[in-house]
Specification:
The chain contains four helices and seven strands; from the N terminus they run H-E-E-E-E-H-E-E-H-H-E. The protein is of the alpha+beta class and 152 residues long.
Length: 152
């Protein structure tokens, strides 16, 4: 269930919010535990074939939560500036809602890791052998909805 944005005057067009996701390389992944406890973690990402893609260790709290409930949100903020005299903040932010999937297929993992490293470290040689494939987990998020807000 998605709630309608209260400040429609600050809403971005969906294409602009999507563009923000594509421009950014850092954001915050939001998940919920089985007990409803929220968990948000910062991480690097790239948009590859329409998915938000990130890599992580093969074990950990983030993966436990995704396995229990793959519905996630992912937020980026590319600009922010507190305006003390006006008691406000200028900002541009976007939030994506979707379903996370742990990529199991080794060749898909390899191609996503190569694309991710190409985005995050352009020009840096990166070889993705079988050891790299086994040592990393790759997660991709199928985005169902993206919204954005801006002020300033």
């Amino acid at each position: 269930m998605y709630k309608e944005m209260r400040r429609k005057d600050r809403a971005m067009e969906p294409a602009e919010a999507q563009h923000m996701l594509e421009e950014a390389d850092f954001g915050f992944l939001g998940m919920a535990g089985p007990d409803g406890q929220p968990y948000v973690v910062p991480l690097n990402h790239a948009i590859i074939d329409g998915y938000i893609v990130f890599h992580c260790a093969t074990q950990g709290h983030k993966l436990d939560l995704i396995k229990a409930n793959p519905l996630v949100s992912y937020a980026v903020c590319t600009e922010h500036e507190v305006q003390p005299k006006e008691i406000t903040t200028k900002y541009r932010s976007a939030i994506a809602f979707g379903k996370a999937e742990i990529v199991e297929d080794p060749e898909t993992k390899r191609s996503l890791l190569v694309a991710l490293m190409g985005r995050l470290a352009p020009g840096v040689p990166f070889s993705c052998g079988d050891d790299s494939i086994g040592a990393a987990c790759v997660v991709r998020i199928k985005v169902n909805r993206v919204t954005g807000k801006k002020r300033g």
